[in-house]
## 1
Amino acid sequence: MDAKYYMNEALKEAKKAQLIDEVPIGAVIVKDDQIIGRGHNLREHLKDATSHAEIMAIQEACQTLNSWHLVDCTMYVTIEPCLMCAGAIVNSRIKTVYFGAKDPKAGAVRSLYTVLEDERLNHRPKVKAGLLQDEASQIMKNFFKAARKKHKNKASN
């Protein structure tokens, strides 16, 4: 399988989040050409600030491997990881991270910070940005446009 295939799987996770009114971000973790972890945002449903797509995928991958070491694993995530998720990626030793669209308000990989490439850290995954960025960006734009419309309609009632 190629990188686009796995990013499309992450986009499917983002769409699952969107269907339940969660911010549509999705992630998958791959080892040896097998998806070992999947996740999408569940903050609203779980009432848990840490229930980001990346964290959910990392937790599932750790359970699958019965280890916190995700060495030789690749993460595909639709939107640039935030500071919390970047830290979890470093701490779990993920080898490579592909992300779709940048997040200018919270991105900690390229936009606001470059956590994953910080030479002071003991682990630095390879980063590949922009994979299927238009698709990832469009899902987010559609979600927030609908959310603003819903909010506006509630306010006018």
## 2
Amino acid sequence: MADNLVLLTIRGPVAELKLNRPQQRNALCEEMLLQLEACVDALAGEQHVRVVLVRGEGKAFAAGADIADMQAMSAIEAEAFARLGQRVFGKLEQLPQVTVALVHGYALGGGMELAMACDVRIAVRGAKFGQPEVTLGVIPGFGGSQRLPRIVGQGRALWWLLSGEWIDAEEALAAGLVTQVVEADDLEATAERVATRLAGLPPTALAFIKRAVYEGAEVALPQGLAQEAALFGLCFATEDQKEGMAAFLHKRPAAFRGR
């Protein structure tokens, strides 16, 4: 029986996905990716879960894909490994819940790609980010060449990808790669505050925002606007829209019930 390389815990509306391979700095091997996929698939059906925190056990978020596993791969095996990582991270990105990466230590290579597949990224001061695959004679395989330019812009992304240069949390914040930088001692309180904020908002509207942003990024502006209008309209078929607007008009807190 395989070790539990990914731990899933659910406490009310908040779930936590924890990479659990600390001795290898949570390097992403095939078995870890498969376990992560199983957890993500399970979360997709958990309608009461509204927020998913993604983090790493030990001294790092994730130091990348496991080079020891990759070193002897054939071209065919390497492509299959890349497609596995892309599939798993794509499922994570497509979850209806809001996902929050809590990054400490290192988020390099596949670790940074995992963080970029989350909706929100919070970094501990001193955390390091990078796509150093070029220094190993390869390119990113789990979506780095595609998500990074969409997040920080093509010019900055190209430099980081071509140089393999690492950046610290403050530079990542300035570039828009992370949402917030906090002290290590404040990470838990920040995570709780963010999770509580998001868990109190209407989950259908949150899921629709994700769809509008991610799907809109793949099409021309007129199609993106049409999608936004359609999803806006669908919000008016939900109880949360009625509750949210009634609460606003009556000057009381809203009590959203969700999907």
